[in-house]
Design a protein that fits this description.
The structure is a homodimer of 343-residue chains. Chain A has 343 residues and is of the alpha/beta class. The first copy, chain A, is 46% helix and 15% strand. The first copy, chain A, is built from 14 helices and eleven strands. In chain A, strands 3-2-1-4-11-10-5-6-9-7-8 form an eleven-stranded mixed β-sheet, sandwiched between helices.
Chain lengths: 343, 343
């Protein structure tokens, strides 16, 4: 590395090789974020020649000395732990290490979620007292806001104490970043009654009830869109399935409306009238505006985006990272974990 | 019981007290089914005086000697196992026992799902070789058909061999009742790779792979609506959450479209044009037409409906029960389980 990051300023590293449309969307989006909010230093991590040609092609103004060159790329099909061991000079490993080495405050990637999770945990390390970080995702709700779900897949197969950690960490995110003062927390279960569920939910329910969090009890699958709770806690296996199922709703609607339209000219006209109001109604469901999924519990800012992230999605991820830096999120997470351990 | 069911004919017992709109919807729907398809005997189970007044009010033609009177009602908030122990003269317990005693071939209820599951298992008994029955639910998919999900909540906390049973039983349902010749079976997981998941999915994946079923490997949350598999296998905890989440999509859409409409007169007009084509596009998502959720693996026909079942929903549940009787589903399930055990 030949650049000297200005440590009085927020430094955000972006994985230029991450996502299905890399380096194009990653470069376009992050440079756009930089031009909108000049108050941080942007480090692009990836193959220097590819990044430079992308910058030139789009006539983008960016100091190419700030690029951190990496040779290797972890692709979407690589096995996370194997990939980060083998591809030490990949953008995902190098980017997380920049945070570890205090050369950046945040790392943002639309690359392989598993590899990004593992690389952030190993690279940045965990906050003291956290055994399992969580990926926390916003889903739109009927109240024109969001229901956050944690964990959506940082880990599978959790224990009750992990679910408590997800709740502690995510509730700080909701307070500090999403201005939800005293987030209502629900435990995802098959019924409202305390006796419902199995070992994991029974144990987690007990811990949540004993905690000083604003725990409202069990919630069901239908409560996510209803917005019964601000934060829904579940293990990463279920959370990941729910997230991917939720992401498939809009493609499903598009496809069924298309089938309807294909039946007749009359249907085609009527279907044509559906798209805009439906899109506008569902604007909260647009992941591009949501700023990615933060991995909470690592000692740094790590944001993971959808593989198909557009430039807009990347831009919002970078701006979200900046917001987290400005609000000192990582230290607030540390304080929350310490304060909880002291009780 | 004073009636003598004609055992040369299919006998279907219906829980007149089941569901949020009982006895009204249950009585209306089942008598309507009876008038559409005279080829079975209908037994209404519940408070005789309430059923008779409902019949009179709607001027319905039904032989009231066929009513099986019960005093007690298990409501939606009753704890399933406790309720079936305490309320032995409830419609849910008596209805399942009619099947046990060979006085009916099928029992249909829109009442408490848990109580209906437990009552069917204890009352009708399990098919020999089945350790866990499954509730199998159809969800609409992009291919204008259905992706079936099993188990959606007969049990939580399953073992790998239970998931294999869900697959064996449900694939017979798909073949015999839904005319899907060689149903493609996927295992719900967080990724396509065989190594993904945890103990349960790894174990179930191995069993499914070794079986003679048409197992296509792991599928993700997004594959349900895509229709990658005809049948998606998961444990009842996840399946139940997915089902309730899926059922909340239409209310969520209605609510967000309403919020959009409320913003301006212009939006109101545009939103007004959305409803009909959207409803027609999503007609496969209408649970009323789906005929309820069959509980597969018990020694009889048991169909469980949505608490808010309309008369149309009840009618279709009764007709589905008749179809299962006609196609000798229970014996085909028995054969499949025996044939599997012999391998």
């Amino acid at each position: 590395m030949n650049q000297k990051p200005d440590n009085s300023k927020c430094v955000i590293a972006v994985d230029a090789m991450g996502g299905d449309y890399a380096p194009c969307n990653a470069v376009l989006g992050s440079v756009q974020a930089f031009h909108e909010n000049q108050d941080f230093q942007l480090i692009l991590v990836g193959r220097k020649e590819n990044i430079i040609s992308e910058l030139k092609e789009n006539n983008l103004d960016y100091d190419t000395d700030l690029i951190v060159h990496t040779d290797e790329v972890i692709d979407m099909h690589d096995h996370p732990t194997e990939a980060i061991k083998k591809k030490k000079n990949s953008s995902i490993v190098v980017g997380a290490n920049l945070v570890k080495e205090n050369k950046a405050h945040a790392f943002v990637s639309a690359g392989n979620t598993g590899a990004m999770t593992v690389s952030s945990i190993f690279g940045m390390g965990r906050i003291k007292g956290v055994s399992r970080p969580t990926l926390t995702a916003p889903l739109p709700n009927e109240k024109n806001g969001f229901t956050f779900v944690a964990d959506v897949g940082a880990f599978v197969d959790s224990r009750p104490e992990h679910l408590l950690e997800f709740a502690i960490l995510s509730s700080i995110l909701l307070k500090e970043i999403h201005n939800i003062k005293n987030p209502k927390i629900g435990l995802l279960n098959v019924g409202e009654e305390e006796s419902k569920g199995y070992k994991l939910t029974l144990g987690a329910g007990k811990l949540l009830k004993e905690s000083n969090l604003n725990f409202i009890g069990n919630v069901e699958g239908k409560d996510i869109f209803k917005g019964t709770a601000d934060l829904v806690i579940c293990d990463g296996f279920i959370g990941n399935i729910i997230l991917k199922f939720a992401e498939s709703i809009i493609p499903f609607l598009k496809s069924t409306i298309k089938s309807y339209a294909d039946k007749s000219i009359y249907n085609k006209i009527r279907a044509g009238l559906v798209r805009t109001p439906l899109k506008e109604s569902l604007k909260n469901a647009n992941y591009e505006t949501q700023g990615g999924l933060p991995l909470l519990g690592v000692d740094g800012i790590s944001i993971i985006g959808h593989g198909s992230s557009s430039p807009l999605a990347i831009k919002n991820m970078v701006l979200r990272a900046k917001d987290m830096y400005d609000k000192d999120l990582v230290n607030k997470l540390k304080e929350a974990i310490i304060s909880y351990a002291e009780k």
